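All the exercises in this workshop are built on plain-text protein records. A record pairs a protein's sequence with a compact description of its fold. The structure tokens are whole numbers drawn from a learned vocabulary of backbone shapes. Once this layout is familiar, the rest of the handout is easier to follow. An example says more than a description, so a record of this kind follows.
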Amino acid sequence: MPDDEGHPAVAEMSLGPVLSALADPLRRRVVRELAAAPDGTARTCSSFGLPVSKATVTHHFRALREAGLIRQVARGNSRMATLRRADLEQRFPGLLDVVAAEPED
């Protein structure tokens, strides 16, 4: 059962939703950038500089959160995103390595 913020538990993370979230190149970019940063790095959604509207950024981060790829925490009037690295490695070993190795578009 997802927690109050919409983050699924590790056992609830399914490959279909994860792959669906990763199907979008902008969402893969977010995951790659978080994967390249030190573990536990938290960034605001706007810090990624995605070339889309604020509403579309919100949609992308919701898709990543609901699939279990990121964890979001409210910080004042923004939300901080961190990669669920350990959870992803436990549930889908090697998946982050594949995403992180993808060349930039």
Summary: The beta strands are 43-44, 70-75, 78-83. Residues 10-100 form a domain with the Arc Repressor Mutant, subunit A fold (CATH 1.10.10.10). The longest strand covers residues 70-75.
